[in-house]
Amino acid sequence: MTNPFKAVLDIRRHELPLALLMFSYFFLVITSFWILKPIKKALFIQYYDTTGFTLLNWHMTASQAELIAKVLNMLVAIIAVIVFTWLSRHFRRQQLTYCFSAFFLAGYVLYSPLIVNPTDLTVWTFYLFGDLFSTLMVATFFVFLNDSVTPAEAKRLYGLIGLGGVVGGVFGTSAVRLWIDDLDRTDWLWVCFAIAIIIIAIAMSAGRFIKRRDETDVSLKDDGKQSHDNPAFEGALLVFKSRYMLAIACVVGLYEIVSTLLDFQFTATVSHYLDGDAIGRQFSMVFAITNWVSMFVQLFLTSLVMTRFGLTVALMVLPVAILAGSAGFFSSSLFSGLAVR
To answer: Fewest CB within a 10 Å sphere: which of 38, 182, 199, 210?
Structure first.
């Protein structure tokens, strides 16, 4: 743990082709996600920034309307999980990637002309479409990966493959920040379209590599057994039977609540002080900075903190940082309000 690159570089020669393919796969998925996120968020906020949104005589600001969109995201995610579960039992590895990539390719083609002069329907559905990408494509990637490696291989490969996601976040947000004024939203969708084609090609190559490997190594062949139980019920039973898993579920639930509140504060502040295209520029800049910081922390600070201070202290770093940031935001807002008075 003292060497942050040890887990990334501990790969055997015969495992390197698959590792690089899956690194590239994950890199491109996360790159697309971080291209879509600032675009769909900026489109939504800019659309309702001046007029607001009215629902059943309740007039909301753009940032308040986004909270409704986040609730709808949860409902869409439930449907997506059901569809994903059904498809994952009928298709495997690259076939599942083909299915969902084709869906998003069609979505890019559909939305590319619509977001030029968006309507309410376009704004809302594109926001849901952007979040659906991360729900489906990340899950598809990990199903592909888990179906392709043994537990021993996973210990060696996951470091490099996980790094692909971190680098993809940095690359995607940095690209949007650098070229947000040069490319319009339609151009960015065509960029995502091209990335999806490359993802399909990588999945095809990885599938062929795994097939050849399995044909030469009987011990790595899949036995074809699949569970036909409901995975949602299986997961729930596993959580409630274990205090450890229940604690993790509570932490994740609290994280989602806190992150939603922080995102609302951030969006409301940006919407209050900025207008028009400046909103999108601010989103892209903040996302780029946070991803660069995330990569630095994961590569150089995580191992250091865990080695010197232990797991408990490492787990407390993020809550303390959020507490400090929220206290600073509260103090700044309070003093600004007193100054206005």
So the answer is: 182
